Amino acid sequence: MPTDTFRAIELLGRIPYGRVSASRRALPFTTVTRHLVLDDGRLMLRLHRGYDYHRALDGSVVAYEADNVNSGAADTWSVQFTGTARVTAPAPAERERFGATPRLADGEPFDPVFLRIEPEFVTLHWLTEVPAHHLAHSA
């Protein structure tokens, strides 16, 4: 594995959530998911079954992105994994590593579904000396 790939995997292990993007009926969508970095470098995602996104994701090429943009760090990074997602059943130890699920998703009880991503492309981007962010764009 190239050095940037190892670094990207290490950075993903530092944060619990990211976003998965794909298309459904030719329209793009993105949703927030909890992720685990597995020992073999693949990702496992946990998302709410009630969104029904897992049906579009299963067997599709997806992009998964996570970053530390809102961390307040002077140097920020963004990691993107592109690969095929498959619905999977996690092993008990993997399920335990995910921790507790959110209680609700859009007011409904959270019903987890899990996917694995086999990365084909891994991209790592850095922004150095990012100026302090002020909430100038909020109401």
Topology record:
Layout lengths: L2 H10 L4 E8 L2 E11 L5 E6 L4 H5 L3 E7 L8 E13 L3 H7 L5 E2 L2 E2 L2 E16 L12
Antiparallel strand pairs: 1-2, 1-4, 2-3, 3-8, 4-5, 5-8, 6-7
Walk me through the structure.
The chain is α+β, with helices and mostly antiparallel strands. It has one domain: Pnp Oxidase, Chain A, CATH 2.30.110. 16% of the residues lie in helices and 47% in strands. Strands 1-2-3-8-5-4 form a six-stranded antiparallel barrel. The protein has a two-stranded antiparallel ribbon with strand order 6-7. Strand 2 and strand 3 form a beta hairpin. It is globular and about 40 Å long.
Largest sheet: 6 strands, antiparallel, barrel
* Percentage of residues in DSSP E strands: over 45%
The termini sit apart by 45 Å
In CATH, the architecture is: Roll
CATH class: Mainly Beta
Q: Mean pLDDT, as a whole number?
A: 91
In short, what is this structure?
By secondary structure, the protein is of the alpha+beta class.
Keywords:
139 residues, alpha+beta, Pnp Oxidase, Chain A, six-stranded antiparallel barrel, two-stranded antiparallel sheet
